[in-house]
Amino acid sequence: MIDMFRRHLLKGGLAAAAGSVLAAPALAQAFPFKPNQRYPDPAVEILDPSFAKYRIYSSTIEQLGSGMRWAEGPVYFPEGRYLLVSDIPNNRIMKYDEVKNSFSVFRENANYANGNARDRQGRLVTCEHSVTRRITRTEKNGRITVLADKFEGKRLNAPNDVVVRSDDTIWFTDPLFGINGEWEGSRAKPEQATTNVYRLAPDGKLTAVITDLVNPNGLAFSPDEKKLYVVEWRGTPNRSIWSYDVDADGRVSNKVKLVDAADFGALDGFRVDRDGNLWCGYGSNGALNAEPSDVGGRKVFTLRGKPEDLDGVMVFSPAGKPLAFIRLPERCANLCFGGPKGNRLYMASSHSLYALYVEAHGAA
């Protein structure tokens, strides 16, 4: 399979994009991808005419690297023109260099890093969501500083996603995923009574700003930072995005459900563009039908909804209206904007990293 994939890439002139992964022993499947040759890319599905201005007619989805087991937490560094993305089960962080068009290992033994962010000084902020269970910052000299690992004297659960506000406060979610099993770290008992959203002040004070969500996941601010959006993984009855008002002191109020994934979709990590639209990682939530179906003579409990119809990126307006769906061959867990002009959408999707140029720019 790898040899066939290598020949396919060489024929397509894409060897440089995947060479770093394929040159070393693969730690996971290197997923073959055949880009669409027609313009506009039929994988970009417009659900509302207002989205048409964000689609670039002559831009198609590209696969930049593969060979991961569960890609998460992409973050772009404009100073070096590179992107970092977590490969959680393989316990490493990968690096895509858009100048060299290469994909390589940035950090091994990454403490099962999940979400990543860039602070206002250009430093990497990381959620180590198992074993160490902490928020860290990588200094410019490479030294790692622990920013938070306990709340009220008890260990954090499994820090998941993180965002840095313009006032240098760090906001992160703390569900249980990293300690629920052995796939993305090590199983452990939670010490916190609830799964919270935290605000870490520049002076080191840690505050639980939201305590009533069951396994909060992705989070992001509106362009003016007056609203905070948070995905609730165990929403009722579906996964949801909640909206909160944020005051000048960092307190949140006025909880409103903005998006309900009523089609059995799995909202995950997301980003907000300058116009306030939410670009959300999407895929099947894994829920099963209540009754089995006959499949090849066996009674099988099949998935509710079809993963092949759900895998990709959903775009919602600031009011929660579906605007577009970017279809991918793998479930997208998280994404970010990057590139020299901030208009390249990077999508961390299961085994692979994909990208698409759009007429939208990240809010921060």
Distance between the termini: 40 Å
Number of continuous helical runs: 3
Q: Which consecutive residue ranges, at least 5 long each, have pLDDT under 50? A: 1-25
Class from secondary-structure proportions: mainly beta
Notes on the protein architecture:
- The protein has 364 residues and is mostly beta strands.
- The protein has one domain (20-357): TolB, C-terminal domain (Neuraminidase).
- The protein is 7% helix and 40% strand.
- The chain has three helices and 29 strands.
- It has helices spanning 2-12, 15-23, 307-310; strands at residues 44-46, 62-65, 71-77, 82-87, 92-97, 102-108, 113-118, 124-128, 134-138, 144-148, 150-151, 154-155, 162-164, 170-174, 196-200, 206-210, 216-221, 227-232, 240-246, 252-260, 270-272, 278-282, 293-295, 298-300, 312-316, 322-327, 334-338, 344-349, 352-357.
- The protein has a five-stranded antiparallel sheet with strand order 1-26-25-22-21, with no helix packed on it. A four-stranded antiparallel sheet has the order 2-29-28-27. Strands 3-4-5-6 form a four-stranded antiparallel sheet, covered by helices on one side.
- Strand 7 (113-118) and strand 8 form a beta hairpin.
- Helix 1 runs antiparallel to helix 2.
- It is globular, with a radius of gyration of 20 Å.
- Residues 1-25 have low confidence and may be disordered.
- A divalent metal cation binds at residues 72, 217, 268.
